[in-house]
Sequence to fold (299 residues):
Amino acid sequence: MKKAFKWIGIVIGSLIGLLLAVGVVLYFMGTARLNRTYDFPPSNIVLPTDAASIEYGRHRVETLCQGCHGQDLSGVENWFDGGPLGTIDSANITTGEGGVGVDFTTEDYVRAIRHGIDGKGKPIFMVAVPSTAHLSDEDLGAIIAYIMTVPPVDHKTNGQNFTPLAKILAAAGVLGDLPVEVVSHDVHVTAPDRGVSVEYGEYLVNINDCRVCHGQELAGGPSPDPTATWISPNLTPGGELGFWAEEQFIATLRTGVTPGGHQLNENMPWQDYALFYDDELKAIWLYLQSLPRLEQATK
Ligand code: HEC
Ligand code: HEC
Fold:
């Protein structure tokens, strides 16, 4: 009997030892993955100085960046709260104290927005990067030029605060891909002319995060947040939108209420999209209606 206990003890002890060893190895692998540095050739984007371009940059920022970085762009604390995994603050992107703008060059902004890395070349958790990487040089230049004109706001944000558990899960691949690992680093997008066209609608859908949540094919899919369980709806004519008219689509994004009277929940950032110009919403509508009629996707 005693002997059996001894053996059980040895087996359990070895298992715990093995688990700890695996945990430690994964912890270091995860840390290495999060601290790896990347480098990309400079974009040589030249910032525009004319009022029309800066105004266009302002409009892109209000529809594209303010939802995550705050009205005054000074960053949002605990933008992601993963409980036992830790938190991520979105950065203060102004030139105020604690803002990245204090020492950022144009290329530093480009590296963050197009490649998903910080000033030191390390991965950032800005889930929007696979979308913002599709901005044309001209539009990205307008955005950066505008950001440099916004009033500086003093606000210290803390970036990534990951727990050891998060690092272990990052190594095990449970947390999904880092933006820098999935984004196409050599896309050179030429933006179509601004106007009510399928092409411009597609451009707006690509640079905004519609595909991050509604799936690559826009037929719906799971939340990009690995700790959430919601599924976003199908935006192709195979979903509800197959029964809508243009005015109903515009009204939905402006008011957050669908033609069927459903109030869209906070996972759908319609308040940001409510600021799209009429012509932009019309272009997006044209593009969505031009898509193949797909079934609701769930993964
Ligand atoms: C979906 C949310 C989201 C959107 C949309 C978004 N950001 Fe971010 N951004 C973040 C988060 C979160 C961080 C911090 C990531 C980290 O510390 O790992 C960040 C970090 C940054 C950084 C700092 C990089 C560094 O060196 O630390 C810059 C610059 C930036 N964003 C600019 C922009 C601009 C410009 C836009 C609009 C074109 C934008 N972001 C849109 C969430 C977002
Ligand atoms: C952060 C995730 C997220 C992003 C980004 C996002 N959506 Fe959504 N969207 C959702 C979710 C979740 C719902 C469903 C909300 C509900 O039912 O309460 C939704 C609902 C919708 C609906 C209503 C569909 C229906 O069948 O009722 C439309 C239209 C829509 N989104 C369009 C867009 C467009 C266009 C974009 C890009 C400009 C976009 N969404 C970006 C998450 C997102």
